[in-house]
Amino acid sequence: MQVRKVKKMKRTSFKKRTGSFLKQVFSSIKRETIDGASLPDNTEERQKDVRLLVGVISSAALFIILLLSANTARLTFHVMSQPGFNFFTQTIDEEKIFAEALNIAKNPLPFNWCIVIAVISLVGGIGLAKRLKFATKNVAYGQKGDERFTTEKELEEQYPMIPDHDERE
């Protein structure tokens, strides 16, 4: 049976090891220079701000539109449900109903309806903001603009011509 000799490692103190590590870290920071081309820009943060603004504005607009639509529909059904109203012989005064629907203080919606409309408008605003995130996503981040179209000569070299039919005749 053979016995292997184990090489003894030199022991150093923890303070010495951490001190040399910190020296390496701080000395590399001092020496590092960054040119302007490789600095990341803050487009992602700006895009987050834009998406948040679009989400809030679209939620508010959707809330107002849904609130007016629900109030108009409620008032229309209220007029139609009055006794003696005949849908085929009488007409509904849409302008009067819409004018009453605009006056939310006079004809308020039930609170439950407002909660449902608020939730729907928030989901719609968040959905629009998420969709906008995919539309503004950077593709190939960090490229310096070296893309180009393939030339016909390069296509011919890469894809050789193959005859359509067997030429054994």
Give a verbal description of the structure:
The chain is mostly helical. It is elongated and about 110 Å long. The chain has 5 helices and no strands. The protein starts with 13 loop residues before the first helix and ends in an 11-residue tail after the last helix. Helix 2 packs across helix 3 and helix 2 (43-80) runs antiparallel to helix 4. The mean pLDDT is 75. The chain has a domain at 46-135. 4% of the residues are buried.
Topology (SSEs and partners):
Blueprint: H1 14-31, H2 43-80, H3 94-102, H4 111-135, H5 152-158
Brief descriptors of the model:
single chain, 169 residues, 57% helix, 0% strand
For the biggest sheet, the summary is: none
Number of helices: 5
The run of helices and strands is HHHHH
Low-confidence stretches: none
Shape: elongated
Helix percentage: 55-70%
| End-to-end Cα distance | 77 Å
Computed CA radius of gyration, to the nearest angstrom? 36 Å
* Beta strand count: 0
Rounded average pLDDT: 75
Beta-strand percent range: under 5%
Structural class: mainly alpha
Brief write-up:
The chain has 169 residues and is mainly alpha-helical.
